[in-house]
Amino acid sequence: MPICQNCESFVTERYVKVFEPEDIARPRACPHCEDMVRRGKEVRAKKN
């Protein structure tokens, strides 16, 4: 099962397939990441 690079939470293979480009096996951020925001296939730090 893939692990998030940012918070090290487990995510599903389906999540990776939907939200990450084909060449990335471990997501850069996931729904558990409180400090990151996902916009489409891009990931950025959350603004305060």
Give the key terms:
alpha+beta; two-stranded antiparallel sheet; 17% strand; Small CPxCG-related zinc finger protein; DUF7563
Give an overview of the whole structure:
This is Small CPxCG-related zinc finger protein. The chain is α+β, with helices and mostly antiparallel strands and 48 residues long. The chain has one domain (1-48). The chain is built from 1 helix and 2 strands; from the N terminus they run αββ. It has a two-stranded antiparallel sheet with strand order 1-2.
**Major β-sheet strand ordering:** 1-2
Number of strands: 2
Instruction: Count helical runs.
Output: 1
Main beta-sheet annotation: 2 strands, antiparallel
Low-confidence stretches: none
Strand content: 15-25%
Radius of gyration: 10 Å
Average pLDDT, rounded to a whole number, is 87
Identify the overall geometry: globular
Structural class per helix/strand content? alpha+beta
Pfam families: DUF7563 (PF24444)
Protein name: Small CPxCG-related zinc finger protein
Organism: Halobaculum gomorrense
Structure at a glance:
InterPro entries: DUF7563 (IPR055985). The chain is of the alpha+beta class. The protein has one helix and two strands.
